[in-house]
Amino acid sequence: MLRAPEAVSDDITSGVQMPPRTTAFRLDDEPWVEVVDLSGRPGVVSLREVLAASSELRAIGGEIPIIAFAVLRLMLAVLLGDQRPCRRARLARALARTTCR
């Protein structure tokens, strides 16, 4: 599940490191969320993987705390955005099973 962060290519003209260019990027399926698992190993996973393996993760976000806050807000919006009754009931059951550490 966890993948090591990909190398970042150097942009010689501006001196700023830029990620490789892509034509399309799906926030739900593509790995982009920086995480640390319970053993302390860092990795990059997709939004779906974060939600599916949340009990196996110690931390979400990057080096700056505001990034973790933004990612958590996005995940909350995704979870609450689908208002179909069957999904709401399933989410309520999943949240009821979750324990805080």
Q: What does it look like?
A:
The chain contains three helices and five strands; from the N terminus they run ββββαβαα. The protein is globular and about 50 Å long. The longest helix has 17 residues. The strands form two sheets. The protein has a three-stranded antiparallel β-sheet with strand order 4-3-5. It has one domain. The chain has 101 residues and is α+β, with helices and mostly antiparallel strands.
List the helices and strands and how they pair.
Elements: E1 9-11, E2 16-18, E3 33-37, E4 42-45, H1 47-52, E5 57-60, H2 65-81, H3 85-97
Antiparallel strand pairs: 1-2, 3-4, 3-5
Please give a handful of descriptors for the protein shown.
alpha+beta; three-stranded antiparallel sheet; two-stranded antiparallel sheet; 3 helices
* Secondary-structure element string: EEEEHEHH
**What's the pLDDT, averaged over the residues?**
76
Number of helices: 3
- Largest sheet properties: 3 strands, antiparallel
Number of strands: 5
| Uncertain segments | none
Count of structural domains: 1
Termini separation comes to 22 Å
Which structural category do the helix and sheet elements fall into? alpha+beta
- Tell me the radius of gyration: 16 Å
What is the gist of this entry?
The chain is of the alpha+beta class.
